[in-house]
C-alpha cells in the first residue's frame, strides 16, 4: 500500500518509545514504568511520562485536529485508566478506559469546558485486553455541538455523549502533556503504549486505516535515526543548550564554540539555530557527545530544514559535516553537505587518507526561504541522491567508497578545519543523520513533517 501523503504532512508531535534515551530526549521523564521493546509499560500504579509544556500542545483541539495512540491494555487498572492527555486544574482533555468487564473496557474522551465538561464513551467495551490497537480521535472544541470521532484500527466505533458540554473549552496552556498511565492519583491503566502522534489536521478514517496497515510508528520516525545514529538535535532558547538523543547525557549537552575567536550562534524557536556566515557555528569536540558513534562508512541519510540567509563568501561552506579539528580540508573530511558561493548545494566524503570525492550539484537554495534538504548515500549503488522539499532533485554517481576514520569534530555552519574558514550563513532546524538509506517515501514524510512545522 502506498504510504499516505496526507498523514505525513501534519505531524505536530510524535513519540516512539524505542528506548529510555528517546523518551528523555523528547522532553519526557518516565516515572516507574519501564521502556521495553518499543513500549512504555505500566502496571496500573501511577507510571507516567510527562512532557514539559510546549506551545504545540496548548489548546490542541481548539481547531479540528487528530491524535493517535498505539497501545495494549491488560486492565483498567484503577477507578479509570488514563492513557494520555493534557489535564490539570480542571483544564485540558484526556483519553481513558472505564467499565472494566474483566476481559475488556470502554473508551472515553473527555474535554474540559468552562460551564459543563464534555464526555463521550464507546457504547460497548471495545478494548479487549491483550490486543494491540491503533486509536484515533478527531475533535474540534470550538463548538459545543461538535462530537469526537473515535476510530480503532481505522474503523469508527459508536459512542454516546455522557455529558453535553457547555460554555467554552478551558485554556490548558499551563498543563503538561502526559502519556503512559496517570494524570492524577488513582487513575492508571495497566498496559503498554507503543507510540503517540498529534496532528495539526483532521485525519480521515481512511488515513487512520492506512496508518494501522502501515504500522506507521515503524515506517520512518525520528527513532529510526536514534537507533541508527544518535544525532537528531533540538535547540532550546538561550544558553546554547542542545538536546542530543543520547540518554546517557540526560538529554542536554552544551556545544562548544570551536576555535579561538568563534562566537555562539543565535537560537531559534522552535528548535533551530542561526549562524551569521562569519564566525558563528555549532561545534562539538567529543567532550559532551560521543563523536565515535558518528563514523559513517556505509549507507547514510542526512539533512534537515535549512534556510540560507545570504550567499556564502566562499565555496564549501559547511551546512552539516564531520571533520577532524585542525586538519585541512584535504585530510579527513569524513562527510559533509555544503553550499557554494552561488548558493548551489554540494556533497563530499573521504575515500582515502587525504583524498575526497566531491560533487557540486546544480540545485541552488533560495536565499531567505526554508528548504528541506536531504542527501541519501547508497554504497551498493555508488550513488548520492539529493532531495529538495521531499522531491528527488539530482543524483551523483561516485567511484570510491567512503573510507571512514576517526573524527573529533562535528560541525554545523562552518568547516573550521580549512584555512580560510568556510562559514555558512544558515539557519537549520532538526538536522538528522542516520546510518541507512532512506526511501523516497520516507524522505517525503520527513520533508512534509518539517515544512508543516515551520509553516505553522
How do the strands and helices of this protein lay out in sequence?
Elements (H helix, E strand, L loop, with lengths): L4 H4 L2 E6 L3 H6 L2 E4 L2 E2 L4 E4 L4 E4 L13 E11 L5 E7 L4 E7 L5 E8 L6 E5 L4 E2 L3 E8 L9 E4 L2 E2 L2 E5 L13 E3 L10 E10 L5 H10 L7 H7 L2 E2 L1 E2 L5 E3 L9 E2 L11 E3 L3 E3 L7 E3 L15 E9 L8 E7 L11 E5 L4 E9 L2 E10 L5 E9 L4 E6 L2 E7 L11 E4 L1 E2 L6 E2 L2 E9 L5 H16 L1
Antiparallel strand pairs: 1-17, 2-5, 3-4, 4-17, 5-16, 6-12, 6-17, 7-8, 7-16, 8-9, 9-10, 9-11, 10-15, 12-13, 13-14, 18-36, 19-20, 20-21, 22-23, 23-36, 24-33, 25-30, 25-36, 26-27, 26-33, 27-28, 28-29, 30-31, 31-32, 34-35
Protein traits:
456 residues; mainly beta; Jelly Rolls; 2 domains; nine-stranded antiparallel β-sheet; 9% helix; 41% strand; disordered N terminus
Describe the protein in words.
With 456 residues, this protein is mainly beta. The chain is 9% helix and 41% strand. A hairpin with a 6-residue loop joins strand 9 and strand 10 (118-122). The radius of gyration is 23 Å and the shape is elongated. The strands form 6 sheets. Strands 2, 5, 7, 8, 9, 10, 11, 15 and 16 form a 9-stranded antiparallel β-sheet that branches. Strands 1, 3, 4, 6, 12, 13, 14 and 17 form an 8-stranded antiparallel β-sheet that branches. Strands 18, 22, 23, 25, 30, 31, 32 and 36 form an 8-stranded antiparallel β-sheet that branches. Mean pLDDT is 76; it is low at 1-9, 223-254 and 324-331. It folds into 2 domains: 5-219, Jelly Rolls (Sandwich), CATH 2.60.120.200; 224-455, Jelly Rolls.
Amino acid at each position: 500500500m502506498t504510504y499516505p501523503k496526507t498523514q505525513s504532512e501534519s505531524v505536530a508531535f510524535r513519540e516512539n518509545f524505542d528506548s529510555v534515551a528517546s523518551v528523555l530526549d523528547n522532553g519526557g521523564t518516565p516515572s516507574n514504568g519501564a521502556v521495553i521493546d518499543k513500549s512504555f509499560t505500566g502496571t496500573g500504579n501511577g507510571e507516567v511520562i510527562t512532557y514539559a509544556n510546549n506551545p504545540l500542545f496548548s489548546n490542541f483541539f481548539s481547531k479540528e485536529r487528530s491524535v493517535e495512540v498505539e497501545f495494549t491494555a491488560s486492565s483498567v487498572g484503577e477507578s479509570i485508566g488514563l492513557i494520555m492527555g493534557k489535564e490539570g486544574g480542571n483544564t485540558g482533555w484526556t483519553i481513558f478506559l472505564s467499565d472494566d468487564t474483566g476481559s475488556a473496557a470502554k473508551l472515553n474522551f473527555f474535554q474540559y469546558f468552562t460551564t459543563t465538561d464534555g464526555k463521550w464513551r464507546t457504547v460497548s467495551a471495545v478494548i479487549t485486553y491483550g490486543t494491540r490497537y491503533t486509536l484515533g480521535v478527531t475533535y474540534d472544541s470550538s463548538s459545543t455541538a461538535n462530537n469526537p470521532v473515535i476510530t480503532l484500527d481505522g474503523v469508527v466505533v459508536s459512542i454516546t455523549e455522557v455529558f453535553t458540554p457547555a460554555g467554552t473549552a478551558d485554556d490548558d496552556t499551563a498543563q503538561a502533556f502526559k502519556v503512559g498511565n496517570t494524570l492524577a492519583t488513582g487513575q492508571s491503566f495497566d498496559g503498554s503504549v507503543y507510540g503517540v502522534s498529534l496532528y495539526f489536521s483532521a485525519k480521515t478514517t481512511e488515513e487512520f486505516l492506512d496508518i494501522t496497515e502501515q504500522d506507521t510508528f515503524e515506517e520512518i520516525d525520528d527513532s529510526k535515526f536514534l537507533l541508527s545514529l544518535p544525532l537528531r538535535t533540538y535547540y532550546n532558547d538561550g544558553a546554547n543548550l542542545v538536546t542530543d538523543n543520547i540518554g546517557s547525557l540526560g538529554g542536554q549537552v552544551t556545544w562548544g564554540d570551536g576555535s579561538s575567536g568563534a562566537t555562539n550562534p543565535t537560537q531559534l524557536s522552535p528548535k533551530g539555530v542561526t549562524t551569521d556566515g562569519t564566525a558563528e557555528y555549532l561545534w562539538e569536540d567529543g567532550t559532551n557527545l560521543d563523536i565515535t558513534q558518528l563514523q559513517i562508512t556505509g549507507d547514510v541519510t542526512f539533512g534537515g530544514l535549512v534556510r540560507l540567509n545570504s550567499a556564502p563568501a566562499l565555496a564549501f561552506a559547511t551546512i552539516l559535516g564531520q571533520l577532524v579539528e585542525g586538519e585541512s580540508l584535504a585530510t579527513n573530511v569524513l562527510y559533509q553537505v555544503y553550499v557554494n558561493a552561488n548558493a548551489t548545494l554540494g556533497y563530499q566524503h573521504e575515500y582515502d587518507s587525504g583524498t575526497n570525492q566531491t560533487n557540486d550539484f546544480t540545485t541552488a537554495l533560495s536565499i531567505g526561504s526554508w528548504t528541506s534538504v536531504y542527501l541519501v548515500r547508497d554504497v551498493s549503488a555508488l550513488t548520492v541522491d539529493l532531495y529538495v522539499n521531499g522531491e528527488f532533485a539530482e543524483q551523483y554517481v561516485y567511484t570510491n567508497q567512503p573510507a571512514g576514520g576517526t573524527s573529533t569534530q562535528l560541525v554545523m555552519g562552518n568547516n573550521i578545519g580549512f584555512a580560510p574558514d568556510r562559514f555558512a550563513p544558515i539557519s537549520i532546524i532538526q538536522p538528522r543523520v542516520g546510518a541507512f538509506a532512506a526511501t523516497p517515501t520516507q524522505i517525503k514524510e520527513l520533508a512534509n513533517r518539517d515544512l508543516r512545522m515551520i509553516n505553522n
